[in-house]
Amino acid sequence: MALEAWYMDDGNEDPRLPHIRSPKESVSLQQLAELGVLYWKLNPNDYENDEELREIRETRGYNYMDLLDLCPEKVENYEQKLKNFYTEHIHQDEEIRYCLEGSGYFDVRDKDDRWIRIWVKAGDLIILPAGIYHRFTLDTSNYVKLMRLFVGEPVWTAYNRPQEDHLARKGYIKSLTEKMGVPVAAH
Question: Which domain of life is it from (predicted)?
């Protein structure tokens, strides 16, 4: 099954719920790509020997990898960590996540500052561009095993919104402007 993404409703209840607008407004892979979000569907059952994953890593220079099991039983201060992940932020580098087990939500802002929810499940590899406002939470399964990839040594620094003057944010806005051919207002 392909990646599922949609525009979120404005509800304030548990962020682990789907938050689907009524009627549902699906978001295509093409729309995500226009925001700089890249996607691959891979085989999570054989990630150690996956040639496509190896090629992605080599082509994009991802030479660091680790695994994260995110669930209440395995993470100290689980609720606080989840709350931190769900705080809107940017990074100075891409965020690369490959879901090996379980599921969760990456939310990204579109050009009009609306939230798009991306439901990642086993086999989904997504790349969020540097400078895009985003956040993460688990869904109601409360479990995900993610592979985290980096170019060089990992940098975990999150810069919480607002970050309009951050170099990565300016670069991201510039890339959107160049793709669209018209200026895009900073969010």
Answer: Eukaryota
Interatomic CA distance for residues 43 and 127, integer angstroms = 17
Residue 126: inside a domain: yes
Per the structure, the count of domains in the chain is 1
How many whole angstroms separate alpha carbon 142 and alpha carbon 178? 39
pTM for the full predicted model = 0.93
CB atoms within 10 A of CB 148: 16
Task: Give residue-wise pLDDT tens across range 23-51.
Answer: 999 999 999 999 999 999 999 999 999 99
CATH number at residue 27: 2.60.120.10
| Residue 38 is assigned to a structural domain of this protein | yes
**How confident is the model over 84-123, as pLDDT tens digits?**
999 999 999 999 999 999 999 999 999 999 999 999 999 9
According to the 3-state scheme, what is the secondary structure of 12-30?
CCCCCCCCECCCCCECCHH
CB 7 within 8 A of CB 118: no
Question: Helical H runs in the chain?
Answer: 29-34, 51-60, 78-85, 167-180
Quote the CA–CA distance of 57 and 37 in Å, as a whole number.
16
Range of the domain at 99: 4-180
